[in-house]
Write a structure and sequence with these properties.
Length: 379
C-alpha cells in the first residue's frame, strides 16, 4: 500500500480505522482532505462538526424533497422504489448521519415514467442538462435555482436533484447482461426509516444493486470509494447471517453472482471487510483472469482519482464473452469519440494521460482470454 499515492493511501487507511502510516506531510494531508471531500468519504472517518452540521441540514432538505415527491407520485397511483440513499443508511452498518447524499433516486415501472416526470414537473422540477447522464434513468430533475458553486462539497444549499430510473441495469453501454435484475421489482418491500415507511428493494437485492453500482462506476473509470466503503460495511454486518446468504445463493444465475463477487472483492481489497463463507466461495470461484487483474491492478480505480489510468478496461475485457463486444468497449474506453463540450480540453488531457499509462501497463502484461465471469461453483 505504501506504493499508492499518499492521498489514496491515507484515505484507505483512515476509512479502515488506522492512522496514515507513514505519516502524511501537510501538503499530502491537504490533498487527502480534498480527495475525501470530493468523494464524499470525509464523515466516515472524522467528526468535523462543521461538515456534520451541514450534512444534517442537507439530510433534512432531502427528506422534505422525498416527502413532497413521494406524495405526488402516490396520489397518482404511481408505484416506486427508493434506491440507495436513505435505504442504505437504514441497515448497511453505517451511521446515516455520516452518510453524504447528493440526490434522490426513484425506480418506477417504464410505463409510469412519463407520468412520474409530469408529476414532478407539476412540483416545479425541470430536466437539467442537454442529454441523459445514464442509460438507466432520465435527465436529472431539479427545481430552478440561483445557487453557485463555492468550493464547499458539503454546502447544504446544493440543489437537490431527482433521478427517475426506468431500469436498474442496461446492457447497451457496458455490454454485460444481468437478466435476473428484472425480478427485483417483484420482490420489493418497505423499510421504516426516520418515522417513514419507504418502498425499497428487498434486503438481498439492495446488496446486489449496491455491488453492481460499485462495479459499474469502476468499469466506467469513475470509482466511488464511498459506495465501496458502504458495500464493505454491509458485507461485514451480514457476514454471520447464514439465512441471508442462503437466500442470496438461491439466485440461479451464476454470472450475476460472479459480478457481485467482483464488487465484493474490491470491498475486501480496499477496506478489509469480512465476507460470509458463501460470499468468500463466490470470490474464490471467479475466473483466473479476474484474479490476475486484481493481483496487478486492484487499486488502479482509486489511483485514477488522482493519477489518470484506464487499467479497468482490462477487467472489463475479461467480463465480455464476445470478441465484437470486447473490441467495441475497448475502442470506446481507450479512444472516446464524444467528450463533454464544457470540459473538452480537460477531458482530452485526462484521456491522453490515462491512455499513455494504460498502454504502458498493457505492454508489461499478457492479455487474458476469459470468455465469461461465471462462477465455477455448481448452482
Amino acid at each position: 500500500m505504501n506504493a499508492l499515492p499518499p492521498a489514496v493511501r491515507g484515505l484507505l487507511q483512515l476509512l479502515s480505522g488506522t492512522a496514515p502510516e507513514p505519516p502524511l506531510t501537510e501538503h499530502e494531508h491537504r490533498s487527502l482532505l480534498e480527495l475525501a471531500d470530493r468523494t464524499h468519504c470525509t464523515l466516515f472517518w472524522t467528526a468535523d462538526q462543521d461538515r456534520l452540521a451541514k450534512n444534517g441540514e442537507r439530510r433534512q432538505r432531502l427528506w422534505l424533497a422525498y416527502d413532497e415527491a413521494a406524495a405526488a407520485l402516490s396520489s397518482l397511483g404511481i408505484e416506486f422504489v427508493l434506491l440507495k440513499g436513505f435505504t442504505h443508511g437504514a441497515d448497511f452498518g453505517i451511521d446515516p448521519v455520516r452518510r453524504y447524499q447528493s440526490d434522490l433516486d426513484f425506480l418506477c415501472q417504464p410505463a409510469d415514467i412519463a407520468r412520474a416526470q409530469a408529476a414532478l414537473q407539476q412540483l416545479g422540477y425541470r430536466p437539467q442538462g442537454s442529454a441523459e447522464l445514464s442509460d438507466n434513468h432520465l435527465r436529472p430533475l431539479v427545481k430552478p435555482f440561483t445557487w453557485q458553486w463555492r468550493g464547499d462539497y458539503f454546502d447544504p444549499d446544493l440543489p437537490i436533484s431527482i433521478e427517475l430510473h426506468h431500469t436498474l441495469w442496461s446492457s447497451a453501454h457496458d455490454r454485460i447482461q444481468v437478466p435476473d435484475i428484472h425480478h427485483f421489482w417483484n420482490r420489493r418491500t418497505t423499510l421504516r426509516i426516520d418515522g417513514r415507511t419507504v418502498p425499497a428493494l428487498a434486503a438481498s437485492d439492495r446488496i446486489a444493486f449496491a455491488a453492481l453500482h460499485v462495479l459499474r462506476h469502476i468499469l466506467r473509470n469513475d470509482a466511488s470509494p464511498a459506495h465501496t466503503f458502504e458495500l464493505a460495511s454491509v458485507l461485514t454486518e451480514r457476514a454471520d447471517d447464514d439465512a441471508f446468504w442462503q437466500a442470496w445463493k438461491q439466485v440461479p444465475d451464476g454470472e450475476f453472482r460472479a459480478l457481485q463477487a467482483i464488487a465484493f472483492q474490491f470491498a475486501r481489497e480496499w477496506f478489509g471487510c469480512t465476507l460470509s463463507p458463501l460470499a468468500e466461495q463466490e470470490c474464490r470461484a471467479l475466473p483466473e483472469p479476474v484474479h490476475a487483474w486484481f493481483r496487478s491492478y486492484a487499486y488502479s480505480p482509486l489511483i485514477n482519482l488522482v493519477q489518470p489510468n484506464k487499467d479497468a478496461v482490462w477487467l472489463h475485457m475479461a467480463l465480455l464473452p464476445g470478441r465484437i463486444d470486447r473490441v467495441m468497449v475497448a475502442l470506446r474506453k481507450l479512444v472516446p469519440m464524444r467528450l463533454p463540450p464544457g470540459k473538452f480540453w480537460s477531458r482530452v488531457r485526462y484521456h491522453a494521460l490515462a491512455l499513455a499509462r494504460t498502454l504502458l501497463t498493457s505492454s508489461r502484461r499478457r492479455a487474458p482470454a476469459a470468455p465469461s465471469a461465471a462462477s465455477h461453483t455448481s448452482d
